């Protein structure tokens, strides 16, 4: 019947999942084969990823995916969070546990980088927003480490896992664009920036593009997963946000998107980067997407704020918490959800209370009040990002697409519609996995471009529409309150 089966490995900051996508000329189904936690580990030297645990989860997931498709897969592909990497020695062995982007090692590093390449020049050359964890700053922080001195190769997380599966090394472009070592105009390495900062681009494996072949599963992997070979591995938009944006079920070009999850990534899909000073001041990033597109967006702390509170509170029932939060009066206090002060883990309820106090607003007391403060703050940050992006890029929109885990949070979706004063179309929740699957499907014969696969999503995925309820003046006022504090 022309239906093919693809395994999409999608690794988020708190969990990984392996999904089976079944794609025909006019059908698209996604089934979860395996889900596993991703728990960062704090060791004496800092916060680290348990990358071997993740790889074990990937193998378990491929086995489970195979079990659902008669032991055969037409291809597999991996996406994950961005910026982080593993280092390999001359034998190809991993040197230590990859450092977590929330680790404190990059504190104060940006200033050192800017002393060599001023921030404005860096933006003009790379288009990347300032975030302390961009790979460029991580590599600068690690400059005199014994580990980096021994390293012969750097592989970004999805590329590292792909290497373990296939034995082949590459650097996938969408994720490479988050290193701050790529020029978004040429979509190639920013040689000049790297040279001035003493970063050896020879550490990186050759660039590959979404849709490129990335090898086949090694015989040992086939044996361990019970799959029948050959199983090709395909490079996808290996940055999870690239995959998620590829699965935004948009019709036409006049849309904004918000990829929700641990982060909220809010912005536009453009055909060229915006590299103006104004854009830099507004901290918008130009990451690279599929088919020559640019993801012009701002990072917002996202549901991380709530996840950290829930963790601090000993994991109360989330549904009940959200129902109570819906009854708390709106917009009593808001915090700046774009503030890097919320980046590190720990003490989140206290840090939110402190931010409210410092800006002269009522301090949220109960859990429901803190939750409401977080959701109002996120919706407000969504509004600012959607407005700023349209203005800075000269690209007006009629609708906001919300994709990712946050689509399950109806209150957040409704507040986002209210704050933006625009309809919100919510779904799909598993956007990253769907984008991952669709890139594989295109590489293996599915006809159509990005617009075509988006039409397939519109036809096959359940979506929920939220109309703005009016009252944007209140959101404008809250925005002014925050700006004035
Ligand atoms: C989302 C995401 C963001 C990136 C952040 C850190 O999962 O990939 O796009 O800025 O994680 O890697």
Automatic annotation (TrEMBL):
Keywords: ATP-binding, Disulfide bond, Kinase, Nucleotide-binding, Rhamnose metabolism, Transferase. The keyword Transmembrane helix does not apply. The keyword Kinase applies. InterPro entries: ATPase_NBD, FGGY_C, FGGY_N, Rhamnulokinase. Residues 256-443 form the Carbohydrate kinase FGGY C-terminal domain. It comes from the Bacteria. Residues 73-245 form the Carbohydrate kinase FGGY N-terminal domain. Belongs to the FGGY kinase family. This is Rhamnulokinase family protein.
């Amino acid at each position: 019947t022309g239906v093919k089966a693809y395994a999409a490995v999608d690794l988020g900051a708190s969990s990984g999942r392996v999904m089976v996508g079944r794609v025909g000329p006019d059908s698209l189904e996604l089934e979860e084969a395996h889900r596993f936690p991703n728990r960062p580990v704090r060791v004496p030297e800092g916060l680290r990823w348990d990358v071997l645990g993740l790889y074990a989860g990937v193998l378990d997931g491929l086995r489970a995916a195979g079990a659902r498709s008669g032991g055969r897969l037409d291809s597999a592909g991996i996406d994950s969070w961005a910026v982080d990497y593993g280092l390999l020695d001359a034998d190809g062995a991993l040197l230590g546990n990859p450092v977590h982007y929330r680790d404190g090692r990059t504190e104060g590093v940006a200033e050192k980088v800017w002393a060599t390449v001023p921030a404005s020049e860096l933006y003009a050359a790379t288009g990347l927003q300032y975030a302390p964890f961009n790979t460029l700053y991580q590599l600068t922080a690690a400059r005199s480490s014994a580990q980096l001195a021994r390293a012969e190769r750097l592989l970004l997380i999805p590329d590292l896992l792909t290497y373990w599966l296939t034995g082949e090394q590459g650097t996938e472009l969408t994720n490479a664009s988050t290193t701050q070592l790529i020029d978004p105009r040429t979509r190639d390495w920013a040689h000049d920036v790297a040279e001035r900062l003493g970063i050896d681009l020879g550490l990186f494996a050759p660039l590959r593009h979404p849709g490129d072949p990335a090898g086949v599963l090694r015989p040992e992997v086939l044996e361990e997963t019970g799959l029948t070979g050959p199983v090709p591995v395909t490079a996808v938009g290996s940055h999870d946000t690239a995959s998620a944006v590829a699965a935004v079920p948009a019709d036409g070009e006049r849309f904004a998107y918000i990829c929700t999850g641990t982060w909220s990534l809010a912005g536009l899909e453009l055909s060229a980067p915006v590299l103006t000073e104004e854009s830099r001041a507004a901290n918008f990033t130009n990451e690279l997407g599929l088919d020559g597109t640019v993801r012009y967006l701002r990072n917002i702390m996202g549901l991380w704020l709530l996840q950290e509170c829930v963790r601090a509170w000993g994991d109360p029932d989330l549904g009940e918490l959200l129902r109570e939060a819906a009854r708390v009066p709106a917009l009593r206090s808001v915090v700046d959800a774009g503030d890097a002060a919320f980046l590190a883990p720990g003490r989140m309820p206290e840090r939110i209370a402190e931010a409210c106090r410092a800006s002269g607003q009522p301090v949220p007391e109960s859990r429901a009040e803190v939750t409401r403060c977080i959701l109002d703050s996120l919706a407000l940050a969504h509004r600012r990002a959607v407005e700023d992006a349209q203005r800075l890029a000269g690209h007006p929109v009629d609708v906001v697409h919300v994709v990712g885990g946050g689509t399950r949070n109806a209150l957040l979706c409704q507040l986002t519609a209210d704050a933006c004063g625009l309809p919100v179309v919510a779904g799909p929740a598993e956007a990253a996995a769907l984008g991952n699957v669709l890139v594989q499907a295109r590489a293996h014969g599915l006809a159509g471009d990005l617009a075509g696969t988006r039409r397939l999503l519109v036809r096959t995925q359940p979506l929920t529409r939220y109309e703005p309820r009016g009252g944007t003046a209140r959101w404008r006022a809250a925005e002014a309150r925050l700006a004035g504090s």
